[in-house]
Amino acid sequence: MRAWPATLAVALCAFAAACISTTRLDTSGLSFSQDPLIGKVVWNDLITDDLAAVRAFYSGLFGWTYDDAGSRHGHKYVLARAGNAYVGGILEVDDRADGKPLSRWLPYVSVDDVDAAVQRTKSEGGRVAVPPTKVNLGRVAAIIDPEGAVIGLARSRIGDPDETSTAPALGRIVWTELLANNPQQAAKFYAAVVGYEPLTAARRGGEYTWLTHRGTRRAGLFENPSSEAEPVWLTFFAVDDPAASAERVQTLGGRVVLPPSPTLRDNTIAVVTDPTGAILVLQKFPT
Question: What start-end ranges are recorded for coiled-coil regions in this protein (predicted)?
Fold first, then answer.
């Protein structure tokens, strides 16, 4: 984890660079809430060590197109679109010195006050990967929870993308879920830091916790099923056929970690990685 703060600092700098001018950020495919949507994932960045490879992969898998958002300290940053709506950003960073994989999706969750949330993070036993940083569209930071999962925090000055902007559609992000070793402690941590109101219910395969705010389900929390896997925030993408999409992942240079099966949420998801090792979940849509 020692390399992550530096990597995340680069990511936030690139995100800031992309937000320097609202004229460079085409918001025609977005509409914004007048009130903060606390707890909602409002942006996602893919951090990767091979920009060309992931551009080809996600274009082939989801049909994405890209807008060049320049570079920061020599690190290229592009914005990905599904149709006319932005899906997220892709940042190319240098390989880690220790050779360990670094590619992953990083969600940013809306909070009431980034600086206060960072202070709550430290009080609850988490760490600050990147301190609060001012960008033209607001303020952002990145934290590491007590189990090591990384997430971004954001407070936008122009409002959060509303439910219309983020409505489920093929090729777009439709859900975010934390795999935690101790779901009860994780729920307590994020309730304190973000303001979530956890709601736990029994489901096939074990208990599942929805991280809600004012009655709206914003993210999920599930017990990590593998002792070998690190706790991580998973990003779900809508596809019409998880099995066919998983096969396409392999032809595009990715890897299938868990194919669809009756025991894996009734054949509705597949867990895969892109060519650089970033994990993602293919979610059947409509369900």
Answer: none
Cβ–Cβ under 8 Å, residues 106 and 150: yes
**Terminal CA-CA length for the chain:** 36
Residues in the chain: 287
Question: What are the average pLDDT values for consecutive 10-residue runs of the chain, which has 287 residues?
Answer: 54 49 60 93 94 97 93 82 91 74 91 98 96 87 95 93 91 97 97 98 87 97 87 97 98 97 93 97 93
Q: Which residue in 283, 274, 284, 282 sits closest to 46, CA to CA?
A: 274
> d(Cα 273, Cα 253) in Å, to the nearest integer?
9
Which CATH number covers residue 58?
3.10.180.10
Check: CB of residue 34 under 8 Å from CB of residue 159.
yes
In terms of DSSP H, where are the helices of 80-155? Answer: 114-123
Residues 113 and 188 in one domain: no
Look-up of token digits 């999706």: 105
Q: Residue 62: give the domain boundaries.
A: 4-13+33-156
Both 147 and 183 in one domain: the answer is no
Q: Which of 88, 122, 156 is the last residue of a domain?
A: 156
> Are 39 and 127 found together in one domain?
yes
pTM value is: 0.91
287 by Cβ neighbours in 10 Å (0-12 / 13-18 / 19+) ranks as exposed
